[in-house]
Design brief:
alpha/beta, 868 residues, membrane, glycosyltransferase, Glycosyltransferase, hydrolase, elongated, TIM Barrel, glycosyltransferase activity
């Protein structure tokens, strides 16, 4: 019942939220007839830049739509069919303010003027004004001297009032222009000046009054006034359908009261203007490109007229997501269920509204392709957020763990040696320092367990001085029952998996369980005695203890690494264990020998043979359990480069597994995998896949930003809502990590932030690995992670983060260049620069962590000790 009430509350929240921001706003009614419209009869698929022009039939249909709604129209050119507009408009009782286009080409200008004068002298006589040029001075296509010469020429040849159309400030800056016109034709477009819509009408009329006061002897006609319904934001000016309706209805009411002659900008949307004014240029029409009204003319204005439908779709999608997230959610508390519902409803509302906004735009093939990529990116982020939210809920809000966790107690029969299974411990080694491996073997010799053997498989180590001392040490530890055995094989194919398969060939026939530890791990004496009881359940094939490390206090770099590792072992593995879906991660793992043989041993086609084996065991229908208690400690990488190589191998190997087991993971192949196991394997690797997509996005963002610098009108910044999504995702991930680290892992806030820094530093590497693994999937060499190596010097540290440094420099440089080129006017541009800054954070983190790895031991962070 509490969950149902929470669900109802979220449904009401969506409808209430939509309703609250879509309250009807009553404004003055649009009059039956207005003085004039700016008239460009281009249809949706027409473009003068491609010489695809309206036909007479197109113009006739458009004029018929305006009949009875306006007394006049203003045009911009007399070239071609546009010169027929006065004749065609007369049929519908519409007057014309006839315009001639003036540009930088003197020959074209002369041709326009000649035809302008010719048309003005011909019947019908419905031309009430003439306009020589439209914003020609604003564009600096001609000088004031050139323009006045054109004006004087036309005025000498006609009795019809002549002017040129310019924004209000151009008239005030060039007052000498007034002597060459019969009236002042002024543009009032406060949107371009970044004026807030609520203040825009007052601003427009105040500027009109300034022009009237400056030229008291001239009549002032507003040749363009309007507001766009879509497009970028400029300072406080927001382009929206509601703002367009409110501005125009208010302005018309005020202008008519003052007796102002005006032409609304414009009659019909002009999608072709995207290329010269950006996306906003396509949306100035009162009617859309399909000639449908865009807003209410008399009834109250609603910001999103279809909000009830959008709310309903949002709720429907949210219910489907909730149903999926709450599948097998018996252990979740009401708080956990409510948290998942909140994320489902928030995500669905965001996606539905973004899709709605996308549907309101005019698109070219290029914009469709770019928008589709952006939408896919948003959907990808949403999927990752929902998967992360699911893990968050199951880590924080559970009534109790149902499967084996924590340090188990030995079973009663464990005191009898004969009741304990024989264990074969395999230690693969390659180029390991002899003293390191000796310490590992000494720890194994101290095991409080009666029946075990240790097989050291040294594969492909070339230097006898490296492996001979280990061989001798095994002989010194050996007893009459040959407990410690050493094998040196060179050459041996298959890397670590090949060594482990060789060990299987030499495993004692009495062995019921195979254990694997890495060469640097020193196990606790009670490791086997504590974990063997789990195998009393015949369904259990894997018993896994977490990896742990003993060198976290060696340096600030290793303190960061240690903090970052802990999240997976104490959060991710714990939640996965509840659905029998843990990742087998090699060291500190115990595998039932018979199952290992049945599934064909260790796989050599992937560089993460441990995780791949675990998946095959699950596919065979067996179970695994995770003991959230440390029974051994190893060593972490000494340099950032080694840290990157290790994570590259993990991520690349995971993608090899996805490729090889895709049919089973997606349910297309019948195996023993449960739905929960398939979910956790795919959801667990989703963040890594997201890093791959983010790397692609970063590359596209760089390309798009360069195009914005080259042609900012044709290549606009993405919509504000799209740019906000990465910020929300970053904040979500940060809050999740800090919350779970401090509450479930038990770190301090500083340690949680350290883990965040370390994790961010690997984003570039993981992204590269996942893309390579998914797209290529070819076999690569097993990259051993060196331990007890030399600390990186400063130059080496910088080289280790060379790619990230270049990426950060490119992103930060583009941000500065965009701000310098485009200024601070448009919120979309600022948001996009923020996205570039956000994309640079992982790259900067990589440089910082790499430099930390070069610090001398004497500069170790005092907090490092507390991480152990």
């Amino acid at each position: 019942m509490p969950s149902f009430l929470a669900l109802c509350a979220f449904v009401l929240m969506v409808f209430g939220g939509y309703g609250a921001v879509n309250q009807p706003v009553q404004e003055p009614a649009w009059p039956d007839v207005i003085p004039g419209f700016a008239f460009s009869p281009y249809q949706k698929d027409q473009n003068p830049q491609n010489n695809v022009l309206p036909t007479r039939e197109d113009i006739i249909r458009d004029l018929a739509r305006l009949q009875g709604k306006t007394r006049a129209i203003r045009t911009y050119t007399v070239e071609g069919v546009f010169g027929d507009i006065p004749e065609l408009a007369n049929t519908y009782g519409i007057n014309v303010a006839l315009g001639a286009w003036i540009g930088p080409d003197a020959v074209s200008n002369a041709r326009e003027i000649d035809r302008l004068v010719s048309i003005s002298r011909s019947a019908p006589h419905n031309i009430v004004r003439m306009l020589v040029g439209n914003e020609a001075l604003l564009r600096t296509d001609v000088s004031v001297h050139q323009l006045t010469a054109y004006l004087d020429t036309v005025r000498a040849l006609t009795d019809i009032p002549v002017s040129t159309a310019e924004p209000w400030h151009v008239w005030l800056q060039n007052p000498e222009l007034a002597a060459h016109v019969d009236y002042i034709a002024v543009h009032l477009l406060p949107f371009w000046e970044g004026v807030e819509m609520d203040k825009a009408v007052d601003y427009a009329l105040n500027t009109l009054h300034q022009v009237q006061a400056r030229f008291p002897d001239k009549r002032v006609v507003v040749s363009e006034v309007g507001w766009p319904s879509q497009g970028r934001t400029i300072q406080q000016a927001v382009a929206s359908q509601a703002n367009q309706a409110i501005f125009l209805r208010r302005f018309i009411h005020r202008a008519q009261a003052e007796g102002v002659v005006f032409y609304v900008m414009e009659a019909f949307d002009q999608p072709w203007k995207r290329t010269i004014e950006g996306a906003v240029g396509a949306h100035w029409g009162v009617l859309d490109a399909d000639r449908n009204p865009k807003f209410e003319m008399r009834n109250p204005i609603i910001a999103v007229p279809h909000w009830k439908m959008l709310a309903g779709v949002s709720v429907g999608v949210a219910l489907l997501i909730t149903l999926f997230l709450l599948t097998d959610a018996r252990a979740l508390t009401t708080a956990g269920r409510s948290f998942l519902m909140f994320n489902a409803f928030s995500a669905s509302t965001l996606v539905v509204f973004i899709l709605y906004e996308f549907s309101q735009q005019y698109h070219t093939w290029t914009s469709v392709a770019v928008s589709a990529l952006m939408l896919l990116g948003v959907l990808g982020i949403v999927v990752v957020v929902l998967a992360e939210a699911h893990e968050w809920a199951e880590a924080l809000w559970v009534a109790g763990r149902q499967r084996l966790l924590g340090k188990p107690l030995p079973r009663e029969t464990a005191t009898a040696s004969s009741a304990l299974p024989f264990v074969s411990i395999h230690v693969p080694a390659y180029e390991e320092p002899p003293e390191l491996l000796k310490a590992t073997l000494n720890a194994l010799a101290r095991l409080d367990y009666p029946q075990f053997e240790v097989l050291v498989i040294d594969n492909n180590t070339r230097n006898e001085a490296t492996w001979k001392p280990v061989q001798a040490h095994c002989m010194s530890l050996d007893s009459s029952d040959h407990r410690f055995r050493f094998f040196h094989v060179n050459p041996l194919a298959g890397y670590k998996a090949g060594a482990l398969n060789l060990a299987l060939d030499h495993t004692d026939a009495r062995a019921e369980v195979v254990a694997v530890i890495d060469a640097d791990y020193q196990v606790a004496s009670n490791w086997l005695r504590d974990l063997m009881p789990a195998f009393s359940n015949p369904s259990i094939a894997i018993v896994q203890a977490p990896q742990d490390y003993r060198d976290a206090s060696d340096s600030a770099f290793k303190a960061l690494c240690y903090a970052e590792y802990k999240g997976f072992f104490h959060v991710g593995m714990v939640t996965r264990n509840e659905r029998n879906a843990i990742i087998q991660h090699g060291t500190m793992t115990l595998v039932r020998r018979s199952v290992l043989d049945d599934v064909g041993g260790w796989g050599t086609h992937t560089v993460t043979e441990d995780a791949e084996l675990g998946l095959r065991i699950f596919e065979a229908g067996h179970e695994a359990t995770y003991i959230d208690h440390s029974y051994g400690q190893g060593l972490m990488p000494d340099t950032f480069l080694d840290y990157k190589k290790q994570r590259h191998r993990w991520a690349y190997g995971a993608m090899q597994i996805v490729r090889a087991h895709a049919a089973a993971l997606l349910g297309f192949q019948k195996t023993g995998l449960t739905a929960g196991q398939r979910y956790h394997f795919l959801a667990g690797w989703l963040p890594w896949m997201a890093d791959g997509l983010n790397l692609l996005f970063t590359g596209l963002a760089v390309i798009w930003s360069v195009l914005m610098l080259i042609n900012p009108l044709a290549f606009n910044a993405p919509p504000l809502l799209i740019s906000v999504v990465p910020f929300l995702f970053f904040v979500f991930k940060l809050v999740k990590l800090l919350t779970l680290y401090t509450t479930r892992v038990g770190t301090t806030l500083g340690q949680a932030l350290a883990a965040t820094l370390a994790g961010l530093s690997l984003s570039y590497t993981i992204g590269h690995a996942t893309l390579s693994g998914l797209l290529l999937g070819r076999a690569i060499a097993f990259a051993r992670t060196p331990k007890t190596g030399q600390r990186a010097r400063w130059r080496q540290a910088l080289a280790a983060a060379r790619g990230e440094s270049i990426c950060a420099l490119a992103l930060l440089s583009l941000q500065v260049l965009l701000l310098a080129r485009l200024g601070l006017q448009a919120q979309e541009n600022l948001a996009w620069c923020g996205v570039l800054l956000l994309q640079s954070v992982p790259c900067v983190a990589a440089v910082v962590v790499s430099l930390l790895s070069a610090r001398a031991e004497g500069l170790v962070d005092e907090k490092a000790e507390s991480l152990v």
